[in-house]
Amino acid sequence: DQIKAFGWDEYCMLNGVRPLDPKAEPHYNGKERYWFPRGIIANGEYYKSSENYGPDMVNEYARNFIKREREKPFFLYYPMIMPHSPWAPTPHSTGGDKSGERICELQYFKDNIEYIDHLVGRVVKALEESGQRDNTIIMFTGDNGSGYPVPVDVSNKHLRRIGSLSGWSDYKEIILEPGEETPTLTRRGKVTVQEGPLSETTYGDVPGRKNRMLRDGTGVPCVMDWPRYRAAYNKMGHRHDDLIDFSDFFATIMEVAETSVNYATDGTSFASRLARGGAPPRDFVFS
Fold it and tell me: For 49-97, what is each residue's pLDDT tens digit?
């Protein structure tokens, strides 16, 4: 099993992985990556669940893992799938096709973000029920900056949004106000429109482009909670503008776990900053 060869003891994944038995029948046969997904594989087999929404299925696996491993130290890496396009309705959406048909509408981006909060809450509850919440560091972050316009099935003209003038090939994008028409494009012989979210932040409106070397392309939410140091957090404040690179997580977790590896690694540990409010360790991040 190649996934375990990378060092994982177990896994539950969507996309990019196949069951060990190529003739295995999928538990669900949906056309859409979120609803009735056919590609969720757990340890070489199709993951069977009473859930029919992909993010719920992976969340269920994560919660079960926490409860199984509660008597010993564990590390859980939990990529949540969401809010990656296509933006489909969530179980909490008031409308939308939840039959498994492919759907992508910008209006569901907000629902996806809110459902992430719901899924995080379920993980926290599992930690509480297992008796491990106060003994667990939670690190929550995104994997890249804001997304760019993608092909949508229906243009959401009632929303403020970004639209593409040329497709994915370059950065010709405009901000569209409610009521404005999104320009049409021809992609693979089909006429389509491409729309993306316009995020409103404390730094102003962020039009997107995760592969830009700017704040909107590299900056992501990063929220951490170590119950042991909550009193210290209250004294030193809860918001910091430090630079953190993804390679730093490995170094930090090794320091917190009081372990090491016998090979060269990238990254700078921010464990002292996380625990005691020490000086931020990085002067720059290479992107």
Answer: 888 888 999 999 999 999 999 999 999 999 988 888 889 999 999 988 8
Closest-CA residue to 172 (of 194, 203, 146): 194
Query: Six-digit token pair at 131?
Result: 């008796």
Which amino acid, one-letter code, is at 24? A
- Among residues 208, 202, 207, 195, which one has the least CA distance to residue 108? 195
How far apart are the C-alpha atoms of 105 and 70, rounded to whole Å? Answer: 40
Say if CB 161 and CB 179 are below 8 A apart: no
Contacts of 101 (CB under 8 A, 6+ apart): 31, 32
Task: Please state the length of the chain.
Answer: 287
What's the half-sphere exposure (Cβ side, CA atoms, 13 Å) at 220? 19
> CA quadruple 9, 15, 18, 23: dihedral positive or negative?
positive
